[in-house]
Write a structure and sequence with these properties.
Elements (H helix, E strand, L loop, with lengths): L1 H16 L3 H20 L9 H21 L14 H25 L10 H5 L3 H18 L8 H24 L3 H18 L8 H14 L7 H23 L8 H12 L8 H5 L2 H14 L28 H8 L19 H30 L6 H15 L8 H21 L1
Helix pairs in contact: 1-2, 2-3, 2-4, 3-4, 3-16, 4-13, 4-15, 6-7, 7-8, 7-9, 7-16, 8-9, 10-11, 13-15
Length: about 425
């Protein structure tokens, strides 16, 4: 299987250089599928970490690119109506080359035999109900009792992350012990419905389910042995979420709060067609990386201009109260002409550059190769710096798994966030040991 993977990688490069862009997208899909089969496709789980979730992202992203290049859709979101096939092919290659380098480095440096087994909860004396009530308490604190948390930057967002990460642990405990599975499932459903009503990001609806299913896979130690509830959840997500994603995007400006739930139920019940950006087109990186290529052709490489915030990003805001806000997505949206600044200096849109795209924008092909190798190593070291010995460890690792499923961050701004979370994680571990 490994030799076949390397053959596919060679063909992947050749297909780009001879302008077989459709074949290139298909080969990338095959490469990601090979990695997933190696990791979780056997009778026993080999590994389940951030590299595994990133491989799954590459699988569905490559499927989206294959659909775009094959002409199987007329969705304008794929190309924004003006990208040529050559430009689209180069954009896909930039993302794929960087992604392969990141994934292979993560696979090389992440410790493989680091998955919890079904006896891990007994050894660590972690119990379901204390974690469950702690998660509910934090959820209430974050959403009702302490709005100040949302103004605390990384600290506040880490508290919110604990709720989602706790689902991973609760699901693992429930499926390991075969007890309280229904409770974990209902709590997951509640958080998903809450996100449907009150979250601005549509992908937030999926986050609890990603945690729940990941916990079941870890406990079952095989993709084939997951609980029937999980299998039904996967089927329902495939059937319901893609059209719901399009519907919510089309009605975003018209629906507020609880209106989203009732409107979604009525729409699903009525089975009405709705136009808008689909999940498939949203997964495509053609628009943003294609825009990066056009910027470099117009202005040359930016030589680190988008990374200047690294000079001060690690200075705490309580020391430097007027520290500039980091809004790289807004800057990029304005730079490519997809947004404008209002009188308060805030852009009306934000566009992600992707990690490979930002390296290419700044330093060209050498920067893309060296930068993605370094980035993959950093992600691997962060993963290895955490463990499954505490709730905080489960939370942090879920965050990394989640990052893998969402392109490892919108751009390189994810690195300061990771450092902040890692410091918080280590601090919480130290405090729990001392007290």
């Amino acid at each position: 299987m490994r030799q076949f993977k390397y053959i596919v990688l060679v063909l992947l490069g050749m297909s780009y250089w001879v302008d077989l862009f459709l074949v290139h997208a298909l080969l990338m899909l095959v490469y990601a599928l090979i990695v997933l089969v190696q990791d979780i496709g056997g009778r026993h789980l080999r590994r389940f970490d951030v590299s595994t979730s990133y491989a799954f992202l590459l699988l569905i992203t490559s499927a989206a690119h294959f659909v775009a290049l094959s002409g199987l859709t007329d969705d304008p979101w794929f190309f924004r109506k003006y990208y040529s096939a050559e430009l689209s092919g180069q954009a896909i290659f930039i993302f794929n080359l960087g992604s392969v380098l990141i994934l292979e480095i993560m696979h090389l440096f992440i410790k493989e035999k680091d998955n919890p087994d079904s006896e891990g909860t007994d050894k660590l004396k972690i119990r379901f109900w204390p974690i469950f009530f702690a998660s509910i308490s934090i959820f209430i604190l974050v959403n009702f009792l302490n709005p100040l948390i949302w103004s605390m930057g990384s600290v506040g967002s880490f508290f919110s992350l604990i709720v989602q990460g706790s689902i991973l642990l609760l699901s693992f405990i429930a499926h390991s012990t075969r007890r309280n599975i229904v409770v974990a499932l209902l709590y997951t459903l509640f958080l998903s419905v809450w996100a449907l009503q009150y979250s601005y990001l549509r992908m937030a609806i999926l986050i609890p389910w990603v945690a729940y299913l990941s916990g079941d896979i870890m406990a079952s130690q095989s993709l084939y042995k997951v609980h029937n509830y999980s299998k039904w959840a996967i089927v329902l997500m495939i059937l319901v979420f893609p059209p719901l994603f399009t519907f919510l995007g089309n009605k975003r400006a018209e629906l507020y709060g609880g209106e989203k739930l009732s409107a979604s139920v009525n729409w699903l019940y009525g089975n009405q067609e709705v136009e808008g950006q689909s999940v498939t087109s949203r997964l495509s990186i053609i628009p943003q990386v294609g825009s990066i290529i056009m910027l470099t052709r117009k202005n040359g490489y930016y030589n680190g201009e988008t990374l200047e915030y690294f000079k001060y990003v690690f200075i705490p805001r309580f020391i430097w109260r007027d520290k500039p806000l980091i809004k790289q997505g807004q800057w990029f949206a304005v730079e490519i002409g997809n947004a404008y600044y209002n009188r308060r200096g805030i852009a009306n849109n934000s566009v992600n550059m992707t990690v490979p795209g930002e390296f290419y924008l700044n330093f060209g092909w050498p920067g893309l190769v060296l930068g993605c190798l370094l980035f993959g190593w950093i992600i691997a070291m962060v993963w290895n710096a955490t463990d499954y010995n505490s709730l905080y460890g489960w939370v942090f690792r879920f965050y990394l798994i989640f990052l893998g499923l969402f392109s490892l961050g919108a751009d390189l701004q994810v690195i300061p966030t990771l450092v902040a979370y890692l410091i918080l994680y280590k601090s919480l571990i130290w405090v729990s040991r001392v007290f």
